[in-house]
Amino acid sequence: MKSTFFILAASMLLWGQPAFAEPSRPNVIVIMADDLGYGDVSCYGATTLQTPNIDRLAAEGQRFTSGYSSASTCTPTRFSFLTGVYAFRQKGTGIAPPNAPAVIKPGTVTLPSLLQQAGYQTAVIGKWHLGLGGPEGPDWNGDLKPGPLEIGFDECFLLPTTNDRVPQVFVENHRVRGLDPTDPLWVGDRAPSDDHPTGITHRHTLRMDWSHGHNGTIHNGIGRIGFYTGGRAARFRDEDLADAWVKRSIEWIESNQHRPFFLFFASHDLHVPRMPHERFQGKTSLGFRGDAIVELDWCVGEVLNTLDRLNLASNTLVVFCSDNGPVLDDGYKDDAVEKSGDHQPSGPFRGGKYSIFEGGTRTPFITRWVGRIPAGVSDEVVCTVDLAASLASLTETPLPTDACLDSFDLLDVLLGKAGAKGRDHLVQQDNGQAGNFGLRAGAWKLHQSVRGKSKANGKTNTNEKNQFQLFHLVDDPAESTNVAAQHPDVVQRLSLQLQRIITEGRSRRAD
Ligand code: NG6
Ligand code: CA
Q1: Residue pLDDT, tens place only, 164-195
Q2: What pLDDT is stored for residue 3 in this prediction?
Q3: Contact 129 CB / ligand 1 (< 6 Å)
Q4: Which helix (H) or strand (E) holds 376?
Q5: Following DSSP, what letter does each residue of 452-508 receive, concatenated?
Q6: Ligand 1 centroid to 312 CA: how many Å?
Q7: Once rounded to an integer, what is the mean pLDDT over residues 284-307?
Q8: Where are the alpha helices (H) located in 400-459, listed in sequence order?
Q9: By alpha-carbon position, which residue is closest to atom 1 of ligand 1?
């Protein structure tokens, strides 16, 4: 016994490191952009604007050409990212309204709870959009729980839903920040009085007009979805969102630099209303949509500079991704369509936000860990839903069998290891209410669409008549030619595979 100890101690001295390998515990920062398309950044082919900081991340790490969000809207992608479960498995995971209760129930194993278990400090700073409060919804003037702190985050500093939804206040841990109790905040889905100014009654006063929806309460000259009164002292200016989150993130990184940390930086750029800070306005020829991309890139640069300044770059895994694909007119007249010129927000792909075409979910996806991830481009299939199992693997945190049911351990792929294989299949969904699915399996892409009409984005869409469509992504990356009739065997095989994944309730092997 004694001699074993001696040998171990001696070998530690000799090699200068512990004899038993400690689990690897680098810091992890996930930067999730909002509505950023595959073609929206210069390292993925944009030429009408430049994103030097995102490009730097790509140049120093792995840039994925088949990196996906799991859904083509926000709430389901964020649900899947945090839980490792496809959102279609749980009701109520579609776009969350202003008074939505917490979508992820306390007790759920989540990416942050797994990292907490591994000894990490965890925080989410930015857009939440996963509901707050019990079944009755958020208690805006009281404790806003359950919320992020009940599912694995030690701290949060949030915009509750999206900035086109009311209210424009920050939630700091369990409270609305800066709320004056003599001016309580009320949030509802009906005008509180006949004389409450709205985007309809006071349309002439708006500084950014709406094109559909967004005609409820007016704040900062912009009409919103839903209504609110009070909470005046707590309200922020749209222009200041990115600055507030960057400042808070830098402070949080500084104060946690000596222990392993996980930061989920959930940018609001480039979601509507696109109202970047004045110093970014007019920086691109694409209008505020392009300017918001430049603001997003600035945020990424601030995070990277902080890691450099604190000497943390070689001990921090940074993941950059998006929650869904791009949209030009998402309900405001902000000239995104008129000024788009030659810019291709979805890159070479068809469709965008709300769609199961590749443009809806195939988005920028980059991993960087200086000294550990080689620089390069990977064509392997990875998805935001895989981060939970992959980061559990990185930190050697045991994954309970009944948790993260659709999250695959793709750590080696994310770390750019030669020969590592990504997913051989991936289910994609739209907002989840209409039941449209995409199944990517190798070069094939099967669409299963609900026949007839579905509602999304305030518009009624008529889906293709075919319930199944099939595309060959290598020959036809733009999904322009449906080849289902030529390959009935492939349609049969993939539709069975899709049904099995839906009905079996999990796609991660139980082992
Ligand atoms: C839609 C909104 C859209 C956007 C979206 C959610 C209308 C007409 N459209 O209902 O503007 O807010 O919801 O976007 O109101 S997401 O990226 O958060 O999923
Ligand atoms: Ca989004």
Answers
A1: 999 999 999 999 999 999 999 999 999 999 99
A2: 45
A3: yes
A4: strand 376-383
A5: SEEEETTEEEEPPS-SEEEEETTT-TT--S--GGG-HHHHHHHHHHHHHHHHHS--S
A6: 37
A7: 98
A8: 411-414
A9: 457
Determine the Cα angle at 500 with ends 496 and 502, to 5°. 120
Tell me the three state secondary structure of residue 208.
strand
* Parallel/antiparallel/unpaired status of strands 186-188 and 222-223: unpaired
Neighbouring CB atoms inside 10 A of 181's CB total 6
Q: Is 330 in the pocket of ligand 1 (CB under 6 A)?
A: yes
- The bound ligand whose nearest atom lies closest to the alpha carbon of 98 is 1
pTM equals 0.94
Q: Which ligand lies nearest the alpha carbon of 331?
A: 1
Domains in the chain, please, with CATH?
27-414 (3.40.720.10), 425-504 (3.30.1120.10)
Please work out whether the CB of residue 35 comes within 6 Å of at least one atom of ligand 1. Answer: yes
Long-range pairs for 87-95: beta carbons < 8 A, 24 or more residues apart? 87/429, 87/432, 88/427, 88/429, 88/432, 88/435, 88/437, 88/502, 89/405, 89/406, 89/505, 93/432, 94/431, 94/432, 94/433, 95/129, 95/431
Ligand 1: centre distance to CA 385 (Å) = 21
Q: Can you tell me the distance from the alpha carbon of 283 to that of 499, in angstroms, rounded to the nearest whole number?
A: 47
Q: What percent of the chain shows pLDDT beyond 90?
A: 90
